[in-house]
Amino acid sequence: MAEIEVLQAREYTVVKGNELIQKSRFELSLPEQKTIAYVCSMIKPVTAAENRGIPYQLDYQFDIRQYCKICGIDYDNGKNYADVKATLKKLRDKSFWMQLPDGSETVVAWLDRVTTDKRSGLATVRIDDRLVPYLFDLGQRFTKYQLKNILGMKSQFSVRFYEIAKSYEFKESIVFDLEELKHLLMVDDVPSYQNFKDFRKKVLEPAEREINDLSDINISFQPIKRGRKVVKIQLNITKKEIFEAWKAGVKTNQIIESGI
Questions:
Q1: 109 φ/ψ angles, rounded to the nearest 5 degrees
Q2: Which residue windows are transmembrane per the record (predicted)?
Q3: pLDDT on residue 47
Q4: What is the span of the domain harbouring residue 194?
Q5: Quick one: which H or E segment has residue 8?
Q6: Which CA distances in Å does 230 have to 158, 197, 222?
């Protein structure tokens, strides 16, 4: 894959339904989040006539070496094939509860099927069909961003917060109940995060730094107190000017290339 093709692939658009981002509780590692975003960036509109009568495509194939190069993984490292296999297996095995429009809930997996071939270096994945309403034909309730905006991030919370912030970007700010935010991030049971100072230091501040340095938006967190206790968090979001966003993209590419 030529260098220009790698840079172009990092510009691909990731699109997800707001319901998936804003209301679903899931815990994914950093490689798992980047892999899902990478798969989503491959989704392109298709017609039923093009796809055996089905107006969306669930099966995607990619070259593991190219995937590593796009995402900034040392693609000459002999462990990469095994690492990517392990990440895909975890995405196949992990599931989460998704609330349906009628109020009921269903268990959804990220991937329904995974196949890898060491001889060809190809991976083939099938998206769980229960994710169709949240990844295809989304109307107006969706969030989109370029893949490169998350590829330089080192904290799993940075990626999660970036997607949450992008989904509320049009509002410029959103207030979360502190305990609800922890619940959404699935850290409500982490003992050390019961202390707000630790939660801010280990979750909020790293996410704020990376998002502001490496993405197309700036964010800030404003604690809201009741008495002396922090009970809510206001997330402020501003879109960067074109030049500032370009500089962030350059920095991201430098970080990615230095990791290869």
A1: -105, 160
A2: none
A3: 61
A4: 155-260
A5: helix 3-10
A6: 21, 10, 10
Phi then psi dihedrals of residue 143, to 5 deg: -120, 135
Q: Could you identify the residue written with the tokens 């890898």?
A: 116
Which one of 151, 181, 197 terminates a domain? 151
Would you say the pTM of this structure is higher than 0.85?
A: yes
> To the nearest 10°, the Cα dihedral for 178, 183, 185, 188?
90
pLDDT at residue 24 is higher than 60: yes
Answer yes or no: do 121 and 189 share one domain: no
* Residue-wise DSSP of 197-258: HHHIIIIIHHHHHHHHHHSSEEEEEEEEEETTEEEEEEEEEEEPPHHHHHHHHHHHHHHHHH
Q: pLDDT value at position 51?
A: 58
Three-state secondary structure call for residue 143: strand
3-state helix, strand and coil shares in percent for the chain, rounded to the nearest 5: 45, 25, 30
Q: What is the CATH number of the domain that holds 256?
A: 1.10.10.10
Do 94 and 111 touch, CB atoms closer than 8 A? no
pLDDT tens per residue across span 35-84: 999 999 999 876 655 656 677 899 999 999 999 999 888 777 778 888 99
